[in-house]
Design a protein that fits this description.
Chain A has 502 residues and is an alpha/beta fold. Chain A is built from 18 helices and 22 strands. In chain B, strand 1 and strand 2 form a beta hairpin. Classes of the chains: A alpha/beta (502), B mainly alpha (336).
């Protein structure tokens, strides 16, 4: 069959930075085509070009044999290319159905939106693709990240596209919804259309993709039939060197002193009577199905919102009522939040300003900041964390996801916090940087930091954490140690005896 | 295995569901609080004075509120877009002096100048929209500048309060039909306009842009079009406010516009509109405008100094803002 979409030698510069030097892609109708590469390899740029968000500087793209150079996202959608971006494009104050049909609402003769028809079209769409648990009348700002992601998919499908681009679309989804989306992608391809699928999860790619194209440093380096290639080869192509290990070696570094003791922590009915101890030098994993109290645990420890229960930091009872209090003093707690683009970083500020935001007082004399001392601290952090920046003045928003995450780590380490709360720190980060972040976590533990670590990807807990606390319905379901730390045990604790716990 | 997963899904849903009614109430809390405040004020007013619950009183109060409400209609649209329009002050001043000096007693010239004032108002809005979009300037500063320019122009046309309006024009302002004054019918028309507008594609797009500008633009909303339409409508309604005002005062005033700039924002916010854009509507703003008017009446009936009016308005505004922020907070807590 002829190729539905071809990309030949596409080039894109941003100022002096080359995002794409030689991108190539051939994709047929009727297939799921995975696009793989580390963050910064150029995947995002390529799909932004395909979806009309940015324009290529050179090279040729054809869609159904004709030249294809969309001027904006709307033009791309008219040509039949719809993208579901990681960075969501929904409008919080509109309802699910208004979002799905935004700018394409069915109109009456008076030019008003026909709500009955809107509802019918939405219901049909949701039914046709078996969307899990969405109410058309719900306002989007009341939805969780996962639900928003699902609405985003619905919005793309509502345009009845020939080419559906899914960019990390499963990163916010729990196992069941992921399963649903993968099924949907397969079904969509089977109907003779094309799915371009971007994911960092190789297992998913194996499960659904017919072919894979690998990008590295802005150029296409390989393309395979998925069946004919092994993971090792793909990872090698992505990294350009052999990947020894994703996960670092784990030495037991836990000390005897309890850094964080939590008793009876309760947040409404979303987190109920949770007890645990976290020792110095220990990485305590937090697992369970998504939305079973993990975020409530982290945010109450960091002083966001109200909670009940007793918290002791290094043997001293504390009442943490605000992030400022959590960070305060010699032995505070610091948080890496889930939504780093909105909550962890000031994207329009420089790397330097971001790093030192929480610790301005450390280099302030008589109310004035000492630029030299600040610069020294910043340089030290950039070097020790291997943050890839042109200069400390580079704007944080222009960094790749992995490097943004490192800046947040740096910001956290500059405070005097001894307890680090890491909430899904590797979400949407490429394999290479993931490895570095795990290594960093183990190094920090070896230095005596106590780390509480939630991950939506169970293998990360299994291979990085010393112990794993599994939550189910906001309660402690199990603490797994030693040989019990397996994906199977996590899943078992997270899912079984649900009736009893509920 | 599947059932276990499903059970787990179901198990977490009670925390999400069930709160449907609560969410509905929380979303409308600022608006409901405004309704309660209006009822309370009307009740107090009714106790203090006879004949409050009559058509005559409705006609009087609507006439008193309508200029502000027309100005606030434009402001509501701009605030929903996430902007602000100070230039309405200039449009109102210039509109009244043009009407009072140019209309004459000839119906043709009167009609011509009415249309011209409306067109001028819309044009000012267009210019605001273009400047804000093309030069990427702050709405506050752009409209501050156009306000200043128009105020000066109004003073050139008519340096002091004065001028005259055609008698037929004044008669229209005081006409009644079925016991209801022209002001009440205009109010009804305004509400009809809103019921149409909020469901029109433009209305949805304006609200969406105020809610999340980037997402709206990514979805194909044109920034220039949305700003020109938003500020154009605001200018048009300011011109309407000016024309209506002349039917009540029978004169032009080059400085009267400034009295409507901030009160138009106040009325909208009291009515539950979010200054961050995206949420609120004209029904709330109408309630807000009437609250401000009734406060004026109360001050009059109680025979206290008129300086009490802004003080009470300020307190009411604080209550309104408190209501919306409390609702916002509990909405956020119930979410994550």
């Amino acid at each position: 069959m002829a190729d539905l979409l071809t990309v030949t030698g596409v080039i894109k510069h941003y100022g002096g930075i080359i995002a794409l030097s030689d991108a190539n892609l051939c994709a047929r109708a009727g297939e799921v085509h995975a696009l793989l590469g580390e963050n910064g390899a150029g995947k995002s740029t390529l799909i932004q070009i395909l979806s009309g968000a940015v324009r290529a500087d050179g090279g040729a793209i054809t869609l159904e044999g004709a030249d294809y150079h969309p001027r904006n996202p709307v033009a791309a959608q008219r040509s039949g290319v719809s993208a579901v971006f990681q960075e969501l494009s929904l409008i919080p104050d509109l309802t699910v159905e208004q979002n799905i049909w935004f700018r394409r609402e069915p109109l009456s003769v008076f030019g008003t939106v026909r709500s009955g028809e809107l509802r019918k079209a939405t219901t049909n769409l949701l039914e046709e693709f078996g969307f899990p648990g969405l109410r058309p009348s719900q306002e989007v700002r009341r939805l969780t990240l996962a639900e928003r992601q699902i609405v985003e998919v619905a919005k793309a499908l509502a345009r009845d596209p020939k080419v559906l681009i899914l960019d990390e679309a499963t990163s916010a989804l729990a196992a069941k919804e992921t399963e649903w989306l993968l099924g949907l992608a397969r079904r969509f391809a089977k109907a003779g259309r094309l799915v371009i699928y971007i994911s960092h999860r190789l297992a998913e790619v194996r499960q659904i993709a017919d072919r894979v194209t690998v990008l590295r440093n802005g150029a296409t380096v390989a393309a395979y039939e998925t069946k004919a290639v092994d993971d090792e080869t793909i990872i090698t192509d992505m990294l350009g060197r052999r990947m020894d290990r994703l996960f670092p070696e784990r030495h037991a570094t836990a000390g005897n002193r309890v850094a964080l003791q939590v008793r009876g922590l309760t947040v409404g009915h979303r987190l109920v009577g949770v007890d645990f101890d976290l020792k110095e030098g220990e990485v305590l994993g937090v697992g369970g199905l998504q939305g079973h109290g993990q975020w409530e645990l982290f945010q109450s420890l960091y002083g966001i919102g109200s909670c009940k229960g007793a918290i002791e930091l290094l043997g001293r009872p504390v009442a943490i009522t605000s992030p400022r209090k959590a960070l305060a003093g010699q032995n505070g707690m610091a948080l890496v939040p889930e939504d780093r683009r909105n909550h962890g970083l000031l994207l329009t500020k420089s790397v330097r300003e971001n790093l030192t935001l929480s610790v301005v007082s450390r280099f302030t004399r008589f109310g004035l900041t000492d630029a030299k001392r600040e610069r020294a601290l910043v340089d030290e952090m950039i070097t020790s964390l291997k943050i890839k920046v042109g200069s400390p003045e580079q704007i944080a928003g222009t960094l790749s996801g992995g490097n943004q995450q490192k800046v947040i780590f740096g910001k956290m380490l500059l405070t005097d916090a001894r307890v680090l709360l890491l909430y899904d720190p590797t979400r949407g980060i490429d394999v290479g940087t993931k490895g570095e972040i795990f290594q960093l976590m183990r190094d920090l533990a070896a230095k005596g930091y106590a780390i509480l670590f939630y991950s939506s990807d169970p293998p990360e807990l299994v291979h990085v954490a010393d112990r794993i606390l599994v939550l189910r319905n906001g309660r402690r379901a199990a603490i797994l140690e030693g040989d019990d730390r397996t994906e199977r045990e996590i899943l078992r604790a997270a899912m079984i005896e649900t009736q009893g716990a509920a | 295995m599947t059932t276990a997963a499903e059970n787990a899904q179901v198990a977490k849903s009670p925390s999400n569901g069930g709160g449907e009614l609560k969410n509905w109430l929380l979303d409308r809390a600022p608006f409901l609080v405004a309704c309660v405040m209006l009822c309370a004020l009307v009740a107090v007013y009714g106790v203090l004075r006879d004949g409050v619950f009559s058509l005559a009183e409705l006609n009087i109060d609507t006439a008193a509120a309508l200029t502000l409400l027309l100005a606030a209609t434009g402001q509501t649209i701009v605030l929903l877009r996430g902007g602000i329009d100070l230039s309405i002050g200039g449009v109102i001043s210039l509109g009244t002096v043009l009407a009072a000096t140019q209309m004459g007693d000839n119906p043709w010239s009167a009609t011509f100048w009415v249309l011209l004032v409306l067109a001028a108002g819309a044009l000012v809005g267009f210019v605001n929209g273009v400047l804000i979009t093309v030069l990427k300037l702050q709405p506050f500063l752009v409209t501050l500048a156009t306000w200043s320019i128009l105020s000066g122009a109004a003073l050139i046309v008519l340096p002091t309060d004065g001028g005259a309006l055609p008698t037929a024009w004044m008669a229209f302002g005081n006409a009644t039909w079925l016991g209801l004054s022209s002001s009440v019918w205009l109010l009804a028309g305004l509400i009809c306009f809103w019921l149409w507008f909020r469901r029109s594609r433009l209305g949805v797009a304006i609200r969406a842009t105020g809610s999340n500008e980037r997402s709206a633009f990514l979805s194909g909303v044109s920034p220039l079009w949305i700003n020109v339409a938003t500020y154009g409508l605001s200018g048009l309604f300011a011109a309407l406010a000016a024309l209506y005002l002349t039917t009540q005062t029978g004169a032009g005033s080059p400085t009267i516009g400034k009295d409507y700039i901030l009160p138009s924002v106040t009325a909208a916010v009291i009515g539950g509109l979010s200054l961050f854009g995206g949420r609120g509507g004209l029904i709330g703003t109408t309630i807000g405008a009437f609250i401000l008017t009734i406060i004026g009446n109360l001050v009059f009936v109680l025979r206290v100094s008129s300086y009490w009016q802004p003080i009470v308005s300020g307190v009411i505004l604080l209550i309104a803002v408190l209501a919306s922020s409390t609702a916002e907070k509990s909405a956020r807590n119930s979410l994550t």
